[in-house]
Amino acid sequence: MSGSAGSRQRRLLDSEGEETAPESRPPLRDRQGAHWKNAMGFWLLGLCNNFSYVVMLSAAHDILRHQRAPGNQSLVDPDPLPAPHSNSSRFDCNSISTAPPGSRQRGLCGWKLHPGCLFSLGGDEPVCYFFLLTSPEPQDPGGEEEAERAARQPLMSSEAPEESKPDASPTLSLQERWTVFKGLLCYVIPLVLVYFAEYFINQGLFELLFFRNTSLSHAQQYRWYQMLYQAGVFVSRSSLRCFHIRFIWALALLQCLNLAFLLADVVLSFLPSIYFVFLIILYEGLLGGAAYVNTFHNIALETSDRHREFAMAAACVSDTLGISLSGLVALPLHNFLCRLS
């Protein structure tokens, strides 16, 4: 009797263990729901972060075409007057290039000082942060995380193995930071070239790619250029789960070829229709978005835990540097081309 009672008790304990074991972690459905909530939250955060900046860039041509009416103290001119521009040039130029407004709005949105950026920050972003994103659960230092860490290839082959341990000090010496930054140059330089080429096109050439044999006005053509570029960027930045690109240099070369081709068309006017330009600009946006998202994805995979945060922050100078350099070159080029008959 005692043996049968003991075996029955063991079976009861086993059955209880089987029932309670799955409760030690969230059900699969809850984990999948949290995954998709996080994916949607980060996607919306990226969208909100760029939205105001993109709208202001798209309006750069209209901003330069209008001036504040006399005596009007409001931020919005109810009846704007057209600003003087050069009708003698075949490009129908504004008095200044669209590069200055683009560079200025870019700087105001690094610092979140522009009202449009503040509106975005005060509206959608906190909603995504507090209501969509889920708090990470404590994870076992072993298992999948340890295997993933071991599979990462460091950017510098001279790293000591102990530096990748999660309990290592996050403080980096100047020598370490310089070593990490040198390892990042294979990504930083191509991304600088990509941003230089595409913003040279966007803020320096879009206004000059003016077609008179179309029903679209000059301002409408500029808006379509900006919209198609941003559509290409949107698609390619959202495509990381579909394909990864390792060689960012190839994207930089293709973007520089886009710049050379469109600059040649500005000077020689050999493209017969604006729709050819539409296709090239959409392609330009695809290249730019793919270069950006794959650069940071590759850096995240190839740096150790100790160096990853610094590496991601250091690589962020690429887009700002490329945009600033493009503005410096686009301004004198705009003035030179607009003086041509």
TrEMBL record:
Top-level taxon: Eukaryota
Record keyword Chaperone present: no
GO cellular component terms given for this protein: endomembrane system; lysosome; membrane
Subcellular compartments: Endomembrane system
Organism: Rhinolophus ferrumequinum
InterPro entries the record matches: Battenin_disease_Cln3, Battenin_disease_Cln3_subgr, MFS_trans_sf
Transmembrane segments: 184-202, 247-268, 274-293, 313-333
Name of the protein: CLN3 lysosomal/endosomal transmembrane protein, battenin
The keyword Magnesium is assigned to this record: no
Stretches for region Disordered: 1-32, 71-91, 139-170
Family listed: Belongs to the battenin family.
Entry-linked SUPFAM superfamilies: MFS general substrate transporter (SSF103473)
Annotated keywords: Membrane, Transmembrane, Transmembrane helix, Transport
A single GO BP: lysosomal lumen acidification
Annotated membrane topology: Multi-pass membrane protein
